[in-house]
């Protein structure tokens, strides 16, 4: 067997060298604990911070809502930054630890505890100025950077623990994302009930202190679990790889594409085990020109690109319409964390003799999700697998489509409930309707979120190449970021337009009195927009072509067994060698 020994590129390990004790659900358990503890505080902040901005920092209704949505938008936008550096410079594991520490430092504990650091109420919002404003906005920046960058690495770090080369690994990966969401849900449930109640009744400072300690404890647990994790080594910058394809394609724009795509440049002998070998597709053929090796040119990253590298750019390009189609659903989500909480604050908060904090309203969708996620994973998915033969039961894009439909329904119902609430408040302010009327819109949107969020995470992870998975999964949060920013734009734009067009000369969402606003019209505006967006999504999801790939691992395993020699360079010579082995160079 000595003559069959093959030297592989850096990063390759034979089957015997792989540590079977690492990875899998054993490692994932540490991640589940982390996301439960971290989201216990994070979701509590999302639910209650609009009231903190309103009651403590003295923003007005629109200002408190926009401050929260801008914070959430920044957090999710910075997840792209976290995904990029974890793919390129830091490992995904180290990215989580470093930025998790920054997140813990960004809590408002000190400012919430010392009253001298809080602004006085004023007639013109915002009231926070000077050094108090510096401290306030510095905390916002640290919180956004830490929570955002950490989120860009967690899904890919968890996905790395499962081997996608066999059917069991594919099923386990799908289950991982479902259990990840369940862990998030359970932690969030504690956050929006226990921690929110403490914040509203015992003091904001105590609530923020508990959140800080829980977040720090979560990352300590992750650090303890390091010996159990498969940790991927960062590779070439995914953004640089994309730019290389674009630059070379532009340089070769006057060249003609070969009739046979097998003649395009592909694998080199120094490819690493971590590289995916992606099958050539006929979409975006102009990008294929980046894989044409000029007769008078030598090989190099800025002179010619492999078919796989070109296909990576095609995959990212195909993802863009999907990303754009999921922005509106996150704009709808922003309303449930801002205006719906403000609605609940002026409704009947009593359940018997117990008074429910309005910021605890999001527990309704969380309870729905806590019940439905085990049902989905343990009952629905196995039944669907028997019918569809798909590892996830249904495709990721089908799952997202269900979520987008339910989000539109939720906004329509939210408008109806607001009409009922405002009518009763005007008729008899002493007898407001029960807070639990909001459970309809929250419950339906909770189910929508269950389908959409995990469908997108799994979709981006599976479709991306191994070196781009953190960046790709952060696209989920990028659409959330744009959705939150779009919410702020919609609020300001609609206020500006309706202020000029209505007889009362008051915007739909202006002032601090919801009973004088037209929040129901804003909800219905989003419902109509969501329906149009669903039609747009259905078009692009049917257009999308899932990737098919062959991993370099499979080729090297064949080489070890002596069944397939390495193919050095794409082109006619590689094609001739490949035909002898029944392998297409574009797939190698």
Kindly describe this structure.
The protein is mostly helical and 588 residues long. It has 3 domains: 21-235, Growth Hormone, Chain: A (Up-down Bundle), CATH 1.20.1250; 238-267 and 279-305, no CATH class; 319-552, MFS general substrate transporter like domains (Growth Hormone, Chain: A). The chain is 64% helix and 2% strand. The chain has 18 helices and 4 strands. The protein has helices spanning 24-55, 61-88, 92-105, 109-113, 130-159, 167-201, 204-224, 238-251, 307-325, 327-336, 339-345, 363-388, 396-427, 439-463, 469-501, 519-543, 552-560, 572-581; strands at 276-278, 350-351, 354-355, 549-551. A two-stranded antiparallel ribbon has the order 1-4. Mean pLDDT is 80; it is low at 1-18, 268-275 and 549-588. This is Major facilitator superfamily (MFS) profile domain-containing protein. The chain crosses the membrane at residues 30-55, 67-85, 97-114, 134-154, 175-200, 206-225, 319-339, 359-379, 400-417, 437-459, 471-491, 521-540. One of its GO terms (molecular function) is transmembrane transporter activity.
Total domains: 3
Under CATH, the homologous superfamily of the largest domain reads MFS general substrate transporter like domains
Order of helices and strands: HHHHHHHHEHHHEEHHHHHEHH
- Low-confidence blocks of residues: 1-18, 268-275, 549-588
Strand order of the largest sheet: 1-4
Question: What's the average pLDDT?
Answer: 80
CATH topology (fold) name of the largest domain: Growth Hormone, Chain: A
Report the sheet-strand fraction: under 5%
Supply the CATH class of the largest domain. Mainly Alpha
Helical percentage:
55-70%
Oligomer: single chain
CATH architecture of the largest domain: Up-down Bundle
Structural class by helix and strand composition: mainly alpha
Principal-axis shape equals: globular
Largest β sheet strand count, sense and barrel closure: 2 strands, antiparallel
Termini distance?
24 Å
């Amino acid at each position: 067997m000595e003559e069959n020994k093959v030297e592989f590129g850096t990063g390759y390990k034979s089957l015997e060298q792989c540590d079977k004790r690492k990875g899998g659900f054993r490692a994932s358990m540490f991640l589940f604990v982390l996301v439960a503890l971290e989201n216990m505080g994070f979701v509590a902040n999302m639910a209650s911070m609009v009231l903190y901005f309103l009651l403590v920092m003295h923003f007005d209704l629109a200002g408190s809502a926009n401050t929260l949505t801008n914070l959430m938008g920044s957090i999710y936008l910075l997840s792209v930054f976290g995904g990029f550096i974890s793919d390129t410079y830091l490992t995904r594991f180290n990215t989580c630890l470093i930025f998790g520490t920054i997140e813990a430092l960004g809590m408002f504990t000190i400012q919430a505890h010392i009253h001298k650091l809080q602004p006085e109420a004023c007639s013109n919002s915002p009231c926070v100025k000077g050094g108090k404003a510096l401290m306030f906005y510095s905390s916002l920046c640290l919180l956004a950077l830490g929570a955002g960058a950490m989120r860009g690495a967690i899904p890919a770090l968890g996905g790395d623990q499962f081997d996608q080369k066999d059917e069991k690994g594919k099923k386990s990966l799908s289950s991982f994302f479902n259990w990840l969401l369940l862990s998030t849900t359970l932690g969030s449930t504690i956050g929006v009930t226990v921690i929110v109640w403490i914040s509203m009744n015992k003091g904001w400072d105590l609530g923020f202190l508990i959140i800080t300690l829980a977040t720090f404890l979560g990352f300590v647990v992750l650090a303890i679990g390091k010996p159990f994790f498969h940790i991927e080594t960062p590779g070439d910058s995914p953004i640089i790889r994309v730019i290389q394809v674009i630059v070379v394609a532009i340089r070769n724009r006057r060249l003609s594409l070969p009739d046979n795509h097998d003649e395009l440049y592909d694998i080199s002998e120094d490819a690493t085990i971590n590289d995916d070998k992606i099958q050539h597709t006929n979409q975006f053929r102009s990008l294929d020109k980046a894989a044409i090796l000029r007769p008078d040119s030598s090989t190099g990253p800025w002179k010619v690109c492999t078919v796989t590298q070109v296909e990576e750019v095609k995959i990212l390009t195909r993802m863009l319409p999907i990303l754009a189609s999921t922005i509106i659903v996150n704009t709808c989500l922003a309303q449930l964390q801002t205006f719906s909480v403000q609605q609940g604050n002026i409704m009947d908060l009593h359940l018997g003799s117990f008074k429910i904090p309005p910021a605890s309203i999001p527990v309704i969708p969380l309870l729905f999700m806590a019940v439905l996620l085990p049902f989905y994973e343990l009952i629905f998915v196995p039944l669907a697998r028997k019918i569809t033969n798909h590892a996830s039961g249904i495709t990721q894009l089908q799952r997202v489509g269900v979520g987008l439909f339910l989000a539109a329904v939720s906004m329509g119902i939210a408008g109806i409930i607001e009409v009922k609430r405002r009518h009763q408040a005007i008729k008899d302010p002493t007898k407001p309707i029960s807070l639990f009327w909001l459970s309809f819109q929250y419950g339906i949107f909770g189910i929508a979120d269950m389908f959409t969020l995990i469908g997108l995470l799994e979709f981006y992870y599976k479709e991306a190449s191994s070196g781009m998975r953190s960046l790709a999964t952060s696209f989920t949060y990028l659409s959330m970021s744009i959705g939150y920013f779009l919410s702020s734009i919609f609020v300001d734009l609609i206020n500006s337009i309706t202020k000029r067009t209505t007889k009362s000369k008051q915007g739909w969402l202006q002032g601090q009195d919801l009973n004088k606003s037209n929040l129901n019209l804003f909800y219905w505006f989003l419902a109509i927009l969501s329906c149009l967006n669903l039609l747009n999504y259905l078009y692009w999801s049917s257009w999308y072509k899932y990737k098919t790939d062959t991993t370099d691992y499979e080729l090297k395993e064949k080489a070890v067994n002596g069944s397939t020699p390495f193919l050095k360079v794409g082109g006619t010579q590689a094609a001739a060698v490949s035909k002898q082995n029944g392998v297409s160079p574009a797939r190698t």
